[in-house]
Amino acid sequence: MCAYECVAVGTGLKCLGNSELSPDGDVLFDSHAEVVCRRHFLTYLYNEMNLCLDSSSSVLRQSTPGRFKLAPGVEFHLYVSQAPCGDASMTCLDRSQSDDTRKANEEKKRRFISRRDEEISDESPANKRPKTEMHGADDSVSLAGPPTQSPSAPATQSMDQSDSVADVSPECAEPLVVSSANMVASGVLRGRDSYNLLGVLRTKPGRIDADSTNSLSCSDKIAKWMVVGLGGALVASLMDPIYLSTITIGAFYNHADAYRAFIDRLEGIVDLPPLYRVQVPEIFHSKVPFPFSRVAVTKNENTRPISADASIGWSSPSDDSEVTVCGRKQGFSAKKAKNNERARPSISKLSLFKLHQEVLSRVNPSAASSTSSQTYRQAKQANSEYQLAKSRLYVGRFAGWLICDPMYEAFKVEGSANTE
Ligand SMILES: [Zn+2]
User: Fold this and answer.
1) How far is the CA of 29 from the centre of ligand 1 (A)?
2) I need a surface site. Which of 75, 137, 282, 343 has the fewest CB within 10 A?
3) DSSP helix/strand/coil, 189
């Protein structure tokens, strides 16, 4: 008999713009629910490693001294209350827009692009934004071919495909010409632009007139986890890769979108290092209404909810959840958070780096000693197997993956923050 336990939770829909990022590893760049949940899951894993080393009850076992693997029969499942942003939600998003909303957004975008182009032409040559590298001539790029086929492949074991498979997304039989204004980089579309182009990388959606972001959509990040695992380079240096067995989606579910985003796009990825694989998750649709969705709250509370700036996360066995706003713990402005350890989220890069260092110092003190002099980026690069798996992913549809600027990973485990 199976027993299920919730081990991590995340909420949130905000993402920092490029001008708000911190080089100290102390701020969350991406606070979308899926990302927050996964980062709290990492804290859960580090805690499980410590429990295993303490010979306490844990879902982990030591495969070799100082290296961990999942105990037999343990699996992980992801539930999202609505289709993740990006490729897995494009069709439903498109259909959910009225003609009036669509026209208003197009007008807003036209004004924004016009204003931005004026600003660029006014900039001195030294200040001009770097040109995005793209293939093609003039101001457009052609992304050839239908991004992927509809799910003609064997259906996943969806609990409810009947209504969704019938709603298969429109075919993209012709190459689509995309204006460079919609592109962030070669092969990467901005947010919700060009709805009808499916299977491509997209940045986090956001207001067209907001500061742009280089954080990729949750659909793209989840797809990445299907190849390199949930752990990231640091966790993966301590344990075998962990994969999601299932993904269950609530609202805005479209089987073709989910299948394409999380399975079809990964076809052709080969030559992964030992222990890594292309995971094919089972995909389910839950029709159980999420009680805190915008639709449910509007209906049940007879009110018009507004989007929260805050993001909430939790992982087992903590007694408390953590609330962050603008990438910092709630209550700390950017000014108050500067060099203030208390403002740092427990799931920031620096916090997770410290958790990694604590476990490493228990299982391999000499390695921990050398890591303490490395930057976060160097520590991640040292996991050559993980880096090889990532390089195998960054081909085909994922070739345009946006890499984090090294300047944001140049901090060391002691960080630059001081306790006040
Ligand atoms: Zn998202």
Assistant:
1) 12
2) 137
3) strand
Higher pLDDT, 93 or 241: 241
Amino acid identity at 355: L
Task: List pLDDT tens digits, range 227-263.
Answer: 999 999 999 999 999 999 999 999 999 999 999 999 9
Contact 327, 16 (CB under 8 A): yes
Residue 365 Cα to ligand 1 middle (Å): 38
How far is the centre of ligand 1, averaged over its atoms, from the C-alpha of 83 (Å)? Answer: 9
Q: How far is the CA of 51 from the centre of ligand 1 (A)?
A: 32
Residue of 186, 73, 94, 204 lying closest to 132 (CA atoms)? 186
Centre of ligand 1 from the C-alpha of residue 262, in Å = 14
CA 297 to chain CA mean position, Å:
26
Cα(170) to centroid of ligand 1, in Å?
A: 23
Expressed in angstroms and rounded, the spacing between residue 216 Cα and the centre of ligand 1 is 8
CA of 205 to the centre of ligand 1 (A): 8
> For residue 225, how far is its CA from the centre of ligand 1 (angstroms)?
14
Number of residues assigned to the chain: 420
Confidence category of residue 146, pLDDT binned at 50, 70, 90: very low
Other residues' Cβ atoms within 10 Å of the Cβ of residue 304: 8
Residues 199/184, Cβ–Cβ less than 8 Å? no
* Maximum Cα–Cα distance across the chain: 68
Domain ranges (residues) in the chain: 8-86+219-409
Distance 268 CA to ligand 1 centre (A): 25
Going by pLDDT thresholds of 50, 70 and 90, the confidence category of residue 68 is very high
pLDDT at 257: 96
Token pair belonging to 293: 């969705």
Residue 130's pLDDT is: 34
Tokens of 15: 């993402």
Q: Say if residues 66 and 363 touch (Cβ distance below 8 Å).
A: yes
What is the rounded CA–CA span in Å between residue 259 and residue 384?
30
